[in-house]
Write a structure and sequence with these properties.
Layout (H helix, E strand, L loop, with lengths): L33 H12 L3 E2 H4 L5 H6 L4 E4 L3 E2 L9 E2 L9 H12 L3 E6 L10 H14 L4 E5 L7 H9 L4 E3 L9 H4 L5 H14 L4 E8 L5 H13 L4 E6 L16 H13 L4 E5 L8 H16 L1
Parallel strand pairs: 2-5, 3-4, 5-6, 6-7, 7-8, 8-9, 9-10
Antiparallel strand pairs: 1-2
Helix pairs in contact: 4-5, 5-6, 6-8
């Protein structure tokens, strides 16, 4: 029986029929420009996907216009049904073992100083697709030496073996997003578990103390400020170095509704609190996403790490 990927995510009772008015400080520019069009053509010519497009990132125009992008690997169909995400879900195709070569070629063509690699969840595989991450890291090192690499990985169901495969390839940044607070975890990402996120991030530091670890959360799904600060303390206890906090924006009426918009003052409070409890870097703002200012993070924090471990 054939299976058609779908973007349906949420119980109909949870669908928002009266959306909250978007505040003036959230302005998303439509992507355009010569560099953006060149990058779009490059991605299509190499049969590549970007999370920028698949997840409808609000910063796509800004990032693509400056010549950066986050590559989406392991196909464009996810095996999980998170209520916030616009990536297709369903039964994915077999792994494309030539994908790492095409991504590395694109990184070289773009002359990137920092490449961000992420993927859909591949729960159909015991290793979660971890070997593909290791392959693309190795190939970028060969084709475009000097380019730092950030991987935004799935939780691999807390598989230490899968995580070891990625860590052994020595990315500069190992990123895994917690996404939300423990109370909302199952309603926001039904197939995920909070302890899997905890194991992924804490084990990364144990396997390689030199790797910069990173995580992110969304706000506006019904959590409280106290819960946000609690999950931030959890992330610090796992050794997370870099935190990103952004406003959840509902991709469509089929997705989880926005409970409220956070103010710029509240984002500033979150950043101040994060730095106060020991994060080395905090990006906190309405349009902040996982890869926002990633190049600056690795450049500045790598200097600190070299002093500590060099």
């Amino acid at each position: 029986m054939s299976f058609t990927p779908t973007r349906d995510r949420v119980d109909p009772e949870k669908i928002s029929t009266t959306p909250i008015r978007r505040p003036d400080w959230i302005k998303v520019r439509a992507p355009s420009g010569e560099t953006y069009e060149w990058l779009q053509g490059l991605m299509r010519s190499k049969a590549l996907h970007t999370v920028c497009e698949e997840a409808m990132c609000p910063n796509m125009g800004e990032c693509w216009g400056s010549g950066t992008a986050t590559f989406l690997m392991l196909g464009d169909v996810c095996t999980r049904t998170c209520g916030f995400c616009d990536i297709k879900r369903g039964r994915p195709s077999a792994l494309d073992w030539l994908e790492p070569e095409r991504v590395a070629q694109a990184v070289k063509a773009m002359q990137l100083k920092h490449a961000v690699i992420t993927s859909v969840n591949r729960d159909d595989r015991r290793d979660g697709g971890a070997p593909i991450f290791a392959m693309v890291i190795g190939r970028i090192r060969e084709l475009h030496p000097g380019c730092s690499i950030e991987v935004l990985i799935p939780d691999f169901k807390a598989s230490l073996e899968a995580l070891q495969i990625v860590i052994a390839a020595r990315p500069e940044i190992l990123n895994h997003n917690v996404e939300t607070v423990p109370r909302l975890f199952k309603s926001v990402q039904p197939q995920d578990r909070f302890d899997w996120a905890a194991a992924t991030l804490s084990n990364a530091k144990k396997l390689d103390p030199e790797v910069l670890t990173k995580s992110g959360i969304m706000v506006g799904l019904g959590e409280t400020m106290d819960e946000i600060k609690e999950v931030m303390r959890y992330q610090r206890s796992w050794g997370v170095d870099i935190l990103t906090v952004g406003q959840y924006l509902q991709p469509s009426k089929k997705h989880l509704p926005i409970e409220r918009y956070y103010t710029l003052e509240e984002f500033a409070e979150i950043k101040e609190y994060g730095l106060g409890i020991g994060f080395q870097w905090v990006e906190s703002g309405p349009l902040v996403r996982s890869s926002y200012h990633a190049a600056e993070q690795v450049r500045q924090l790598s200097i600190v790490h070299r002093k500590l471990y060099g």
